[in-house]
Amino acid sequence: MVLGNPENQGMAGTAFISHHDRGPGAHKIAVQAHRHHLGLASRQCQGLAHGGLHLVAVLALAYLELHRAVGPGAVAGLVEGQTAEGHGLVHPATLGPPEVRAFLEELAIRRHLSASSQNQALNALVFLYRHVLGLELGDLGSVERARRPQRLPVVLSRDEVRRLFAELHRPYPLMAGLLYGAGLRVNECIQLRIKDVDIDNRQLMVRDGKGGRDRYTLLPMSLGSELQAQAERVRRLHRRDLEDGKGYVDLPCAFDRKASTAARDFLWQYLFPSSTLTIDPATNREVRTHLHATALQKAIKRAGAEAGLQKRVSCHTLRHSFATHLLETGVDLRTIQRLLGHKDVRTTMIYTHVVAKGPFGIISPLDR
Prior knowledge:
Strand order of the largest sheet: 2-1-3
CATH architecture of the largest domain: Orthogonal Bundle
Number of helices: 12
CATH superfamily of the largest domain: Intergrase catalytic core
Strand content: 5-15%
Largest sheet: 3 strands, antiparallel
Helix content: 40-55%
Structural class: mainly alpha
């Protein structure tokens, strides 16, 4: 979500919420958090691992809701230092559960937003009231929730996978090979470290996957030599960093306090390191983190277009294809569930609807 013009974040004042009636019982609530509250909430987020990211999401949602509720003219007026009077804006402390409930229901009923957008709006408002205004919203009662649609995954055929890979350039063929050959999520792939690759036992260790769970998954043997070559490139890069007095990497869960030398250990280096050094806010030193997810995502999308695939191709499409192709070869659902790291087998069962025999697992009589 885009926060909008960065200059808009520097507005003085307080937080305002629009209170326009747009139908019987439906009130519009939109939040604009300004610099005063940004500083307050930032101090309260100190010490939280993802406090800054949480705050950015809240501000992004708040800005967009104000923009949608009162229009760009009102936003421009506030930026120019005008008062909120005349725009129907009131302080959020004067509103409560009835207005919040009406706003959330309007998102689902009148604006047809997705369930995730409605949940994000609720979380942002709870965060604003609790951590910025120091108020509790209380019981919202029964809120009509947006329905989460059941969608089938996009799956590539084996030929489409080959055509996609033919349009990728280093290091993306290897990364795409891990997405498809091991069923990794994009973040699980870019966060692989040297120590997580076990070529002899043909397995990858996925650390802190979705839900905070670790798991083992397949390591495609066809990628063994490429993985060794990539590890050797990382070794040379790490050696140069050490010669320059650097060579640090960010560690999980303050592990460097337990093992002070681990941050410069080759085994802890990322398998797909970034080309530049960045400052680790936890230690305030230069570290070489992993390649950014957007680089791989853009490469996959671009390769799909260049290969002429008439499907919406993303990194997750390769994970869907991994599961579907295993299912087509007779691998049981429980094994696929374990490899994918699904908590519930019902999540894995979605792939039974997209196997090569068609959505119902049968062949059309016209094809016999």
